[in-house]
Amino acid sequence: MPDEAVGELVDDLAAEQQALVDLLEPIDDDSWLIPTPAPGWDVRDTVAHLADTDDIAFDTCTGGPRSLGALGAQCASPEDLTLLGVMAGRKLSGAKVLAWWEHARSRELDVLRALDPAVRVPWGLGMRPPSFVTARMMETWAHGLDIRAALGAPDDDTDRLRHIAWIGLRALPYACSVAGVETPPGPLRVELTLPSGAVWVQGLEDAPDRITGPAGLFCRVFVQRRDRDEVPDLLAEGDGARLALRVARAYL
After folding, report:
1. Taking a C-beta distance cutoff of 8 angstroms, is the pair 1, 130 a contact?
2. CATH 1.20.120.450 fits domain 6-151
3. 161-247 is a CATH 3.30.1050 domain
4. 137 beta partners
5. Which residues pair with 237 in a beta bridge?
6. Which partner from 73, 94, 190, 206 sits 20 to 30 angstroms from 102, CA to CA?
């Protein structure tokens, strides 16, 4: 699990969200309609998706009517579920979508702070609270990349990238299953340089497979915003490490 306690992880999630809010608050109406790199989505669609997902996270944690389990049973596919928030947002102005997200994330943060660390959240295959909070951070950061690209805003990477890197590694068996390949049997070591210059390390020192390089590139590969072939500064030694970067996928 992440090294930080749940409360510290929630603080980092709140900071990641707030950085995006600060970017969005001053933009004009036309900017909300700028297409993002995500096909078919503009800035408003992306924020509406974040707002709706945070609402779903809240109901999943509290047993509300729009829990992930309840909506999943009603929707024909995960893509249909995702479109619920997007379509709701298209009925609103950008400013109202931002207000929706502010409300959704505020109550989500409150309920996340109150979670019992020993109880699994029924999200996907079931997640302990530290993993669930980290997953919410990963999604916020990944969609934030799309929004920044659309608005021409500079990247705002922080040492919170260690959380995204952690959940990317945790998701590697799932990523392999989606890709239809066997999970590498041997241990994998990762040595990533964070924006501060600190090095985040996971795995045994003598592991035969290792990935080294900038944390920002590693995380972008794992949220599928960069292709492995586009990041030569991310070095992979061993077949297992090369496979990990090829199938990288940090989300369901």
Report:
1. yes
2. yes
3. yes
4. none
5. 210
6. 73
